[in-house]
Amino acid sequence: MRAGMKMFKLHQVGIFIIVILASSTYAVAGSVMVPDSSIGAGGLWSERADSAQATLDKDFWFPLGDIYFSSSAHSETRNYWWQAHAMDALVMGYRRTGSSFYSTRMSSLYQGVYHSGGFTDSYYDDMEWMAVSFLRAYEVTHDAYYMYETNSLWQTIQGGWSDFPGGGGFRWSTKVLYKNVPANAPACILACKLYEDTGDTADLSWAEKIHAWIASNLVDPQTGIILDGISYQDSVGTPNYGSYSYNYGTYLGASLYLYQITGDTTYLQEAEREADVADTLFATPDGILRSEGTGDGGLFNGIYVYYLAKLIHQLTPNDSLGARYYDFMLNNADTLWEYGRQPGTGLFNDNWQQTPSGSISLSVELSGVTLIESAAYVLGDSAVTAINQVGPDVPHKFDLYQNYPNPCNPSTDIEVTLNRPGAMSLDIYNVLGQLVKVVADGYKPAGEYAFDVDMDRYASGVYFYTLREGRSEITRKMLLLK
User: How far is CA 31 from the centre of its chain?
Assistant: First the structure.
């Protein structure tokens, strides 16, 4: 568990400049730029996600420092790891909408974090969160500076690993010899995602080593209960039995990512088990996640639902376990939206079953935004209208075929072949290189797939669609005529 919030003063900026962009992707509310709610994949949850993102921007963004306030009361301080999750929220919005509002905010936040204290920190888990968020930003924008800082942070983070004491594991910070889930599970996720993006087998080895250490030292093999960590005095370890939802979320996520890149079903089974254990420990009898506070704990539920959404997406609603967690996600998101929002402002509460009052912590708001974005991700607002595997045989090559019909009006089919299992993405861009539609994003077994893509919401013109898997990438052109 964190020893309180780690806060840094923002550097003051002497000049306030408001830039109004002539673009339909922005709406101006006073001096605050907020996403236009007309942008998005469409549907109830996408509209709610637009609203949640607009509230986050209106009530927390600090334009003088290009960073988020720590509360809606506008205290002029920053919390390093909270900013990483703010970056994640922006990436989720960008993936869902393709709006340049989010990519612009991401770039500004990158600069704001740098100028208000830099990218490194004395806590390894904080640097891991930042590195993961930068890597996700790189994956959706392909801006090289995000990848550069990810690699730089990863090199620093690796220095926190030691085989003694405890037979391995990352320490929580440079100041204490405490090895815990928050410092190890996000590192495993980071290593997995780096392997996905670069194909460097050293990163895969890191991911497997980290996961094995967590499983051997911090997870009860019989019950699945996860310790927070172990404090060491010389070679003597004292376990901390603290139980927090974000430990289950990150270990679930690490297990799921390893399954997706290795195909080893034991990792998937571990992710499923930890979701069951977390449901028992952290949900009320009516299935709503309990509050874990308004400080650092305000982020814990958001982190958990982020990785639970990835598991739901992996299992699909047709799977019995997937259907159960699909209902869990819907129940929590509906409850927060109906009961846990502040009238007039739309700010979220840490208790998703009660109306909030007064100032709201950024950590709490980010958990709410993450839940609503996760709901849009799994509850039917997908940009994919249909996905069908069209061939049982393993193809001999990785390929992306010309869409048919082409030109299209407004729907078209895109077929792909994957010659190995892995995390793939299929995205559509306009002629300016802006992401306009996420067709598919996630793990797929080797095989042939057909995607029925609806382009009804988009203007006539030339578009490009790109298939990615690991370091492989293919782009083709399509024409929409209405």
Answer: 28
